[in-house]
Amino acid sequence: MTENFDVLLIGGGIMSATLGTLLSELQPEWRIGVYERLHDVALESSNAWNNAGTGHAALCELNYMPESADGTVDPAKAISINEQFQQSRQLWSTLVDRGVLDSPRTFINSAPHMTFVRGEKDVEYLRKRYEALKDEPLFAGIEFSEDSRVINQWAPLLMQKRRRGEPFAATRVPAGTDVDFGALTHQLFDDLRAKGAHVVTNREVRGLKRQADGTWRVRWRNSLGKTPGTATARFVFVGAGGWALKLLQRSGIPEISGYGVFPIGGQFLKTTNPAIVAQHKAKVYSQASVGAPPMSVPHLDTRVVDGEASLLFGPFATFSPKFLKNGSILDIVTQVRPGNLWPMLKVAFDNPSLITYLVGELMKNHRKKVDSLRVFMPTAKDEDWELIQAGQRAQVMKKDPEKGGVLQFGTEVVTGADGTIAGLLGASPGASTAVSIMLNVLATCFPDRIDEWRPRLHELIPSYGTTLNPDPEAAEEALAETAETLALTA
């Protein structure tokens, strides 16, 4: 028996949950299906322990504002990321008001976002970054200090037994957040089920084929028992993390030609020691090591998962040929096609520092990893911290007309020419900006309906179709309204 859907979402993560939620609001009569290959949703990148839970708003992440060759810093990308996160906050606020989402404390909590740097060069850079952001409405309240007494009030663990005479500085934005994307994803899918969506786990998609009538024929099999089956859908979204590349390749759409992915895993040090956790109420980011990818920027984070507070430090890069934590060791080989071989080889040739960085990370034992933590927290003791395995991140490799191939950090949506299929590649800041990304999918894939949907989208996301930062009053109002609904305290 073939199942028939208007929309089929492949993958049970935050991206599919967000797109499904939007479509269920815009077209409640559409039949929505969700296929997840594991036994539950939110077990890969959306799982709380597979990511750092930072509500990425560019408040503390330095890689969104790199210093240019002439020494200037441009806030444009940081502002853009912040705008996108505000759309996520607005949708979540609307859904909390309507009872779709549970108490905000089950998935989002206040956690000031800080940046901490050492050395005269980085201190000067951080000062310039602060000067570029302090008058931007979406960064209202940002503070800068080189005073150890002030920084000690913000984050005591950074200052205890800090070496005298060492240049350091920090910025702080009290309005930062910690997000449990696993809990959020579960709640969104629970609501989709309640509205009649067909959410199925233990179901692995094996093939995608465009049919003569324009619909997609989807081959699947149950992960348990390997029973096969088929489905048809008018629109398919592939939100399957690292496996999105493989499924888009199987679809045969020419737009995926030239793309590959490079998998990078991660580990975190974690502590639940109450005496330590009580002293740190922030997410503190710093500069990445030479050769490290932006996703490996070191940070010491407050986490709240299932109501329990803990601290994470990392990430420490690992390597596995798998595209997912629960993937196949053949993933990195089976992705190779004639169209992406040269771009991937060029990426390998052009990024020797990344390989060197990965090798160095893999050679670190537990003590060496705690040594890295001691750069942040001089009083850290080996025995207080355990190592946990985080998720896999599939970084995009793609053709480049000048370089032949580039390694891209971030997310990218690949869409078929007729708009009947789309898939998401890449990683951070993906989850935090899921709403913005899915709004772009709607506009690209449903151009004949987007005008009709605009009023409803504006109800769900009041800033939809506009930007907040150019209007200080609108930015202040939006930040205040979502903070109140989401029970966030600066």
From TrEMBL:
* An individual GO BP term: tricarboxylic acid cycle
EC number, UniProt record: 1.1.5.4
Q: Which Gene3D superfamilies match?
A: D-Amino Acid Oxidase, subunit A, domain 2, FAD/NAD(P)-binding domain
Q: Which cofactor does it need?
A: FAD
| Recorded catalytic activity of this chain's protein | (S)-malate + a quinone = a quinol + oxaloacetate
Give me the segments passing through the membrane.
none
User: What pathway does the UniProt record associate with this protein?
Assistant: Carbohydrate metabolism; tricarboxylic acid cycle; oxaloacetate from (S)-malate (quinone route): step 1/1
Instruction: Quote one Gene Ontology molecular function term.
Output: (S)-2-hydroxyglutarate dehydrogenase activity
Could you tell me the keywords of this UniProt record?
Answer: FAD, Flavoprotein, Oxidoreductase, Tricarboxylic acid cycle
Which family would the database say this protein is a member of? Answer: Belongs to the MQO family.
Q: What is this protein called?
A: Probable malate:quinone oxidoreductase
| Biological source species | Microbacterium ulmi
Organismal lineage: Bacteria, Bacillati, Actinomycetota, Actinomycetes, Micrococcales
The gene name reads mqo
